[in-house]
Amino acid sequence: PAASIDLLAAALVPKPTTAQARADAPALTTLLGLHGADMPHLPLGEDDEDGAALAWPGPADLAARHHLDRDAVHDLLARARSRWAKQPGITQARNDIYAIIERAGGVAPADEVALTLLAQRGSTATGSDRLRRARAVVRAALETESVRESNRFTWRRLGGGASAVIALRSDHLDGEELAGYAASLGVVADQ
Q: In which region does residue 160 sit, left (phi positive, over 0), alpha (psi from -120 to 50) or beta (all else)?
């Protein structure tokens, strides 16, 4: 059976057993849109000062929030991607995400993908915690896939990180163009 969203999300940030893991935890929780309640094994401080974390933060958001330079963000992402690539649950989630997007015609809003994955895998969390944890799993899967030679996804953050769109890469369709088209449709729909 597939691991629940809760189990997958809890394994995304390493336990603070090393100085590096303790140093990485705050920025990783920001990247993944998680907070202390999602990671009870971490000695995290308060959540975002403004109470409204970005759903899909980018490297610049991490750098600004955690006072990191570009190289530190790059190194953090490299460590996280390497760790996630070794987790069978994330590999299975990447395959599930591929199937979800394929069924959706090759492109889908990232939150829709997260909600579908959540429906497939389940969660004991309530309210917005459910979607936040599912987003974290999708984000880790996308980040992990992004450094693979056979990367199957193209994704774009929209609205400064408020949402995102994911497209499949294929020989028949240009994933970048598809993601751009979906993003432009979203902008028009919002007007």
A: left
